[in-house]
Amino acid sequence: xxxxxxxxxxxxxxxxxxxxxxxxxxxxxxxxxxxxxxxxxxxxxxxxxxxxxxxxxxxxxxxxxxxxxxxxxxxxxxxxxxxxxxxxxxxxxxxxxxxxxxxxxxxxxxxxxxxxxxxxxxxxxxxxxxxxxxxxxxxxxxxxxxxxxxxxxxxxxxxxxxxxxxxxxxxxxxxxxxxxxxxxxxxxxxxxxxxxxxxxxxxxxxxxxxxxxxxxxxxxxxxxxxxxxxxxxxxxxxxxxxxxxxxxxxxxxxxxx
Length: 257
Ligand SMILES: NC(=O)c1ccc[n+]([C@@H]2O[C@H](COP(=O)([O-])OP(=O)(O)OC[C@H]3O[C@@H](n4cnc5c(N)ncnc54)[C@H](O)[C@@H]3O)[C@@H](O)[C@H]2O)c1
Description:
- By secondary structure, the chain is of the alpha/beta class.
- About 40% of the residues lie in helices and about 15% in strands.
- It is built from seven helices and seven strands.
- Helix 1 (about 25-35) packs across helix 7.
- The longest helix has 22 residues, at about 110-130.
- It is globular.
- It binds nicotinamide-adenine-dinucleotide (NAD).
- Nicotinamide-adenine-dinucleotide binds near residues 18, 93, 94 and 198.
């Protein structure tokens, strides 16, 4: 779908492409279609499915980068600095928690599991933003991905809900830090989409059915619909929106039952 947003000459850093189902992939493709160049940071373990996707983009740059490894982040940002000099957008579409902490009782999470979920899923936004900040241009935009489990208890989402609450708070504080430079920071709260990350959530099939039954639009959402919102948040159409969580969830979050 063409929505007539032109990002020619713009440059985006995108984290979180694992395969063609990844929300980050749909966002990268949408930005690329609009004329934006992509710099993608990817985890070594996803390389076999990541590499063929890069052939679908126009002149992307990419580099292995794990957000728990300072040296790999140093190498990634050095490459982006050398090739792009400046960037307009940063897309953070990363999350991780141990599978055993995405089922059963929330209180069974251990200290290390709590820390890992927060380090990868929330603190990494701060770390990537700080590293990108010197390169980010005026009117730039940062986007993080979140889920309703941050503000409501969603059985099975457990520690990831707590990490998403931290992530959303980070979005607001980063919006304050970067507002003077006219850089916006927002989160998209997406409804459930079948991806690699989602496959780790024990109750995920029930979540999908629940949205069809209860969301005002009586359906699930697609990664393309999330990408449309990301395109809007990268465009000047969203120039007065910052520090917000924007729901792309068929209206599910508006319901009381
Ligand atoms: N799928 C859903 O239902 C849904 C709904 C709302 C929000 N989200 C959020 O969307 C984002 C993207 O998830 P997705 O559903 O596209 O799944 P995905 O598995 O395709 O993407 C998750 C990405 O995180 C990356 N990642 C994990 N640990 C990392 C690390 N240490 N360093 C670098 N990258 C790391 C993985 O390589 C992967 O590319 C996540 O923040 C997720 O919580 C997903």
